[in-house]
Every structure is written in C-alpha cells, then in structure tokens.
Amino acid sequence: MPIDDREPPARRLFLRRLGGASGAALAAPMLLGGAGTPPAPAQDAAARDAEKSRESGYLSLGPREAACVEALVNMMCPADSLTPNGVDCGLHIYIDRQLAGAWGRGDRLYRQGPWRPGKPQHGSQSPLTPEEQFKAGVAALNREIRRRMGKAIEQLTPTELDGLLQDVAAGRWDDERFALGEWFDNCFYPLFVQACFADPLYGGNRDKVFWRAVGYPGLPALHARNVVEYRGRPYPGAAAPQSIEDFS
Q1: Do residues 169 and 181 lie in contact, with contact meaning Cβ atoms separated by under 8 Å?
Q2: Cross-strand bridge partners of residue 218
Q3: What is the dihedral of CA 164, 84, 217, 69, to 10 degrees?
Q4: Contact 176, 226 (CB under 8 A)
Q5: What phi-psi label fits residue 178: left (phi over 0), alpha (psi between -120 and 50 degrees) or beta?
Q6: Per-residue CA distances from 240 to 72, 146, 214 (Å)
Q7: Per-residue b/e over 65-102, b at no fewer than 16 CB within 10 Å?
Q8: Which DSSP string do the residues of 20-32 spell out, in sequence order?
Q9: How many CA atoms lie less than 13 Å away from 1 in the CB half-sphere?
Q10: What does pTM read for this prediction?
Q11: pLDDT value of position 118
C-alpha cells in the first residue's frame, strides 16, 4: 500500500506497522463481586449500556466503548483516495464481533490459573478473557482522556487524536494502574489489522477495499496455481478479489 508523506504522522506509523504487533501479553486485575449481593449502581448502568448496545447493532461494545473504537479506527484509517474511513470500512463491526464470539470469550485459552507473571513467549497470563482485556483498556483510555484533556474522545480534533495515539502507542500514557501502550500493541492494534484484511464475511474490509488496495486476489484456496504462474508479477484478477460470500 503506497504511503503518502503528506498523510498525518499516525497514519504513516500505522500503515508501516501493518502486519501485526508483538510483545508481552497484557495483564490486568479482574474485579469480583460477592455472590448473592444486589447489583451495584455501576452494574445497573452497565446493564443499561448493554441494552442500548444491542439496540444499536453492537454485540459486545457498549455506547461509550463503541464511540471510542469508532474514533480510533477512523483516525487510524481516515478516508482518502485508497479507502473510506474505518467505520465505513466496517472495522468497528469486525472488532465487536470478535469480542462477542469464541475468541473474545477465550474459548481456546487455558483458563484454570494460577495467574503468575510470565515471559512474552508464555502467552497471556491474565485471568481476564480477551474481551475483558480489551474493555479494560478502552475504559482506561477513556478515563485518561477525560483526566488529561477534559473531554470525550469523540470530541477531540484530528490533530489531538493523532498526537494521543502516538503517545499511547509509545507507552507515554502508561501508569501504575494500566499499561496502555501494551494494551494498544497487543490487543487493539492486532484486531485493527485483522479487521482491515479479514474476509468481508466477518464484518471488516467492507467491499474488499483493503484487498484491492494491496492487490490481494482473495481466497487462498483458489490461487495455488496462480502463486506459481504469477510469482513476481501482478495478478490480473486482483482488481476483483473473491471472498467467502462470493461462493455462498
């Protein structure tokens, strides 16, 4: 994907990093309520948010969480000559569906404990599910934006949000309560990349816009021979990639 030097610094940073992120897994404390106790006001508010979220079409994200995710994906993928903005590409929908599904629940993770500090190669050592880790980071980010900037994330100007993202990604917003840089690198950014290049069936990469931008022809199973025939040369069918939906 060509990178225009006139694009905002954060846009150039994220395009160059596209392809994944690595690092130590995020660990965050899990809050537990007493069994049989009446729901606290915060829990009531969470239930109301969940209901509003379902009404808006989100499966996992509450209204404040959705506003944060939409602002982030629009900043990281602004509308230009290559793509619409992140929301119009469906990146927020992909992220929400992943959080609401088996991946977000941690169905394939070992969940029995004990939860001890580990090395990066040991994988996640957190008692939280991926969905809970993601939401903990969104809450921490929203809280810090309010504290440091005095407004909600969707109220920030593009310049303010651009600088914020660079600081968060560099770990300059970390504190003793939460490592936002780790959360961004290991939780949010990988989901953003996946949303860009996943099959449109899963919600992101709407209209195969990212596949066309990089010349990717679609389902790998259809191109075993083409990989050999067109090695080192442009594939003529890349302008019209095919997804799972095309064969449904």
Answers
A1: yes
A2: 242
A3: 40
A4: no
A5: beta
A6: 29, 44, 12
A7: bbbbbbbbbbbbbbeeebbbbbbbbbbbbbbbbbbbee
A8: ----PPP--PPP-
A9: 24
A10: 0.77
A11: 80
Rounded-to-integer distance, Cα 39 and Cα 41, Å: 7
Contact call for residues 128 and 135 (beta carbons, < 8 A): no
For 13, the enclosing helix (H) or strand (E) is helix 9-17
pLDDT tens, position by position, 47-59: 555 555 555 689 9
Q: How far apart are CA 64 and CA 48, in angstroms?
A: 12
Q: What is the DSSP letter of 150?
A: S
Measure the CA–CA gap between 103 and 106, rounded to whole angstroms: 5
Low-confidence residues of the chain: pLDDT under 50: 1-3, 12-15, 18-40, 42
Q: At what angle do helices 91-100 and 130-149 cross, to 10 degrees?
A: 130
* Contact yes or no for 134/178 (Cβ under 8 A): no
Q: Are the CB atoms for 66 and 53 separated by under 8 Å?
A: yes
- What is residue 33's predicted lDDT score, i.e. its pLDDT? 31
CA–CA dist 120, 42 (Å, integer): 34
Provide the b/e sequence for 36-59 (b: ≥16 CB within 10 Å).
eeeeeeeeeeeeebeeebeeeebe
CA dihedral (167, 172, 178, 183) positive or negative:
positive
Determine the pLDDT at residue 146. 95
Residue 55: its pLDDT value, please?
55
